[in-house]
Design brief:
Elements (H helix, E strand, L loop, with lengths): L1 H21 L8 E2 L5 E6 L6 E5 L6 E2 L1 E2 L4 E6 L5 E9 L2 E3 L16 E5 L16 E9 L4 E9 L13 E5 L8 H4 L3 H10 L7 E5 L11 H16 L9 E6 L1 H11 L7 E5 L6 H7 L6 H7 L2 E7 L5 H13 L5 E5 L5 H12 L5
Parallel strand pairs: 12-13, 12-14, 14-15, 15-16, 16-17
Antiparallel strand pairs: 1-2, 2-6, 3-4, 3-7, 5-6, 7-8, 7-9, 10-11, 11-13
Helix pairs in contact: 3-9
Length: 359
């Protein structure tokens, strides 16, 4: 009997040791240090090469492996902001498995690292009253289906009160989702902070799913005008005239913003396009050989802006679009800033917009 117990004990110990060898160690990644340098870690005993890439570095950095199978690298101090990054493991891109902060996107898989500043940034979680982000569902007669939309309501919002709120319809970029504006763009926190500072009016922000892959959806404009706007106006106490509606969007969503807003100027008094991607059939149909009634549109549009970074891969096409609108005598306000086609820039575009609309 003692021999059997001894053998069972040896087998149990061996099994636990084998399990311990298979289970990855608990590691912290990313680790942001007080000087804003960042250490990234990844566990793999079998990988041949691991690198980290992110929008805060010029080129991917190789990581080194220790005897326990943990790969790591520390990057120099980074400018305060939130940044997407990913690991490349033997040429396969993956998000950081030790980071739950994931970039909401349908194509690439990246994680997010938050590098704080000495003081709170416009997108930071601050000690101010906070609004609420709700997941709602509407029936799209245009598309013949039920779709999801995110709705931000400002601090102090009373659905049964007498206050009627303006609405910003905010569209994500290509391959992003309706969650990207909150999870990456932090639209809700930016609105909270600016409203608390008295720099933005309390408003609803409606973030629909643009369904832009594998190609921009031709009927999204109809879905916005015929289904999304009526759904919001039937279910929330909002202003139902054009001076209470704004539309904005980034990249492909910026192109959709131009299609939606400029073909419906009687419905949207504020049109703000961020680094718009306009190489689409809908845009060509709407704006090739376009001859608008500029005098009338300039009266209808209280604000028309286009923003882009000088290092954005769309910089030249966007400049051409700005010139086209100016040639058609539209009062377009352009924001040309440093930086590329990034959500770091996009957050700044939104922060600027929120301070200018509904004034």
């Amino acid at each position: 009997m003692n021999r059997i117990l001894y053998l069972l004990t040896i087998l149990m110990v061996a099994s636990l040791q084998a399990l311990a060898q298979q289970r990855p160690p608990a590691i912290s990644s990313p680790q942001v240090h007080p000087d804003r340098s960042i250490t990234f870690r990844y566990f793999s005993r079998n990988a041949k090469k691991v690198t980290v890439s992110g929008e805060f570095m010029k080129a991917p950095l190789s990581m080194t492996k220790d005897t326990s199978g943990i790969w790591s690298v520390t990057v120099p101090p980074v400018k305060p902001d939130i940044y997407p990054y990913s690991f490349w493991v033997d040429s396969v891109q993956i998000p950081d498995p030790n980071n739950t902060y994931i970039f909401a996107n349908e194509r690439f898989k990246r994680s997010i690292v938050d590098v704080p500043g000495d003081g709170p940034l416009v997108h930071s979680l601050q000690n101010v009253p906070h609004g609420k982000v709700s997941y709602r569902y509407y029936k799209s007669g245009t598309l013949g289906t039920t779709r999801q939309v995110l709705v931000y309501t400002p601090p102090g919002f009373n659905p049964n009160g007498k206050t009627r709120y303006p609405v910003l319809y905010l569209i994500h970029g290509g391959s992003d989702t309706e969650e990207t504006w909150t999870k990456v763009g932090r639209a809700n926190l930016i609105a909270d902070n600016l409203i608390a500072q008295g720099k933005a009016k309390p408003m609803l922000i409606v973030m629909p799913y643009g369904n832009v892959r594998p190609a921009p959806m031709a009927d999204f404009t109809k879905d916005m005008v015929n289904d999304i706007v009526p759904y919001i106006e039937a279910n929330y106490p909002v202003i139902k005239e054009s001076n209470g509606r704004a539309v904005a969007g980034f990249s492909v969503g910026g192109g959709q913003t131009l299609n939606i807003g400029l073909t419906n100027p009687e419905k949207f008094a504020y049109v703000c396009s961020y680094a718009p991607y306009t190489a689409t059939e809908e845009f060509k149909k709407n704006f090739t050989d376009w001859s608008p009634n500029a005098e009338q549109m300039n009266k209808q549009l209280k604000l028309f802006t286009i923003s882009v970074g000088t290092e954005d891969f769309l910089y030249e096409p966007v400049k051409q679009n700005i010139a086209m609108f100016e040639d058609n005598k539209l009062a377009v306000k352009s924001y040309i800033v440093p930086g590329g086609h990034t959500w770091m820039n996009c957050k700044q575009y939104l922060a600027t917009t929120l301070q200018e609309i509904f004034k």
